[in-house]
Amino acid sequence: MSRSSKKGPYVDSKLLKKISNLKPDDKAVVKTWARNSEISPEMVGFTFGIHNGKDFIEVRVTEDMVGHRLGEFSPTKKFLRHGGKIQRELEQKSKEKK
């Protein structure tokens, strides 16, 4: 369920305070744990280090990202591959071709 339109978008106040001291297109990375914070137009041009539970993943905010959440651009799970018997057979065939 989405947030009520009368409340407006949720943007972390500490995050806005960190941005107010910087200029867009700076080399500085703004570290944040606020994955649920929505990207506002004021954030365009900044580079954020978004925590995924282990590391900070650097994400440069563009105009296309406005309205999305910061956590959408920092995946928390690492995809290795689909497993199973069929997958192993496909990998063996590809090795034989090489």
Characterize the structure shown.
This protein is α+β, with helices and mostly antiparallel strands. The protein has a single domain (13-97), classed as 30s Ribosomal Protein S19, Chain A, CATH 3.30.860. The protein has two helices and three strands. Strands 1-2-3 form a three-stranded mixed β-sheet, covered by helices on one side. Strand 2 (47-51) and strand 3 form a beta hairpin. The protein is elongated and about 55 Å long.
CATH class assignment: Alpha Beta
Mean pLDDT: 89
- Note the beta-strand portion: 5-15%
What characterizes the major β-sheet?
3 strands, mixed
Number of strands: 3
User: Number of domains in the coordinates?
Assistant: 1
Give the class from helix and strand content and strand pairing: alpha+beta
CATH superfamily (homologous) name = Ribosomal protein S19/S15
Helical content stands at: 10-25%
Supply the number of helical segments. 2
Unreliable stretches: none
Q: Judging from the principal axes of the Cα atoms, what is the shape?
A: elongated
- Helix and strand sequence: HEEEH
Radius of gyration: 19 Å
CATH topology: 30s Ribosomal Protein S19, Chain A
Q: Keyphrases for this structure?
A:
30s Ribosomal Protein S19, Chain A, elongated, 14% strand, alpha+beta, three-stranded mixed beta sheet, 98 residues
Structural topology:
Layout: H1 13-20, E1 29-32, E2 47-51, E3 56-60, H2 85-97
Parallel strand pairs: 1-2
Antiparallel strand pairs: 2-3
